[in-house]
Amino acid sequence: MTTFYYNKVIWITGASSGIGRGMALYLNQIGNCTLILSARRKELLQMLARECSNVKAHVLPLDMEDFSQASHWVKKALELAGRIDILINNAGIGQLGNSLDTLDEVEEKIMKINYFGNVALSKAVCRYFIENSIHGQIVVISSVLGQFSQPRLATYAASKHALYGYYEGFREEVRKYGIRIQIVSPGFIQTDVTLNSLTPDGKKLNKNSPAQEKGMSTETFAKKLSKVIIKKKEHAYIGGPEILAAYFKRFLPDFFYFLMRKFVFKT
Predict the structure, then answer these.
(1) Beta-carbon neighbour count of residue 25 at 10 Å?
(2) Which residues partner with 94 through β-bridges?
(3) Which parts of the chain are coiled coil (predicted)?
């Protein structure tokens, strides 16, 4: 097992399920580190903390929509673990629905959670790193849809596009302090992100997609993510063949749009 995480404190948001939970369990296998587990659902975090018996695991419930509390969250994290070395900024919410039918308040909620909350927490953690001369890492979990968009996913894609726009600039601002910011874009991973997605009126979709169900396991994703973290790569796609769409969009845009209009569902 790698010694990279030895004695490090790793803070994982969105830890109650999916990618966050998978990463916590993977780090538990490695051992010799401390985890701070964050999400809205305290009881699920407590269950996960009990599963992570090979490491020190602290529970810090938070709601990314309430992003004005970011500095307070950092203070609480330090009270629990004493320091922060790596933030895996993973929490987010999905969306599915026609744009013209989607309520403004639903779009605002998605942007608050996926963009404003993410950014506010990263800034608060970076201030801590700088004040304490810590060469920390922030791992931002975006999406392959941060590189393009699809029908009925416009708001979700917009929130992930925004992360790219922000962090590609912010990364260079904090680099002089020895802070590394990494953007990771998953493809289809076996999580509940589609199941928990918001419909145009803000209700929970409660329906998963076949692509999500057939996607990469969270265990495999966690192993690949760990390699990205260790190598301090500035950007990485992790997923199956679907991540090729990002390259098609960049290098063969006409072909990309042809495929999208031919195969992506229409409404």
Answers:
(1) 16
(2) none
(3) none
Task: Kindly report, residue by residue over 11-51, the tens digit of the pLDDT.
Answer: 999 999 999 999 999 999 999 999 999 999 999 999 999 99
**34-38 and 56-59 strand pairing:** parallel
247/106 Cα distance (integer angstroms): 30
Kindly state whether residue 3 falls inside one of the protein's structural domains: no
**DSSP secondary structure, 152-187, as one string:** T-HHHHHHHHHHHHHHHHHHHHHGGGT-EEEEEEE-
C-alpha–C-alpha distance, residues 5 and 212, integer Å: 30
Whether this prediction's pTM lies above 0.70 is answered by yes
Cα separation values, 3 from 6, 19, 31, 88, 169, Å: 5, 22, 9, 18, 31
In a domain, 125, yes or no: yes
**71-103 burial, b for 16+ CB within 10 Å, e for fewer?**
eebbebbeebbeebbbbbbbbbbbbbbeeeebe
Q: Is 5 one of the catalytic residues?
A: no
Does any domain span residue 61?
Answer: yes
CA-wise closest residue to 216 among 22, 16, 1, 30: 22
Q: Which of 115, 156, 166, 237 is catalytic?
A: 156
Q: How many domains does the chain contain in total?
A: 1
Which of 124, 157, 137 lies closest to 88, judged by CA? 137
CATH code of the domain containing 238:
3.40.50.720
Domain that holds residue 107: 9-263
Name the token pair of 72: 């307070």
Evaluated on CA atoms 214, 215, 216, 218, the torsion sign reads negative
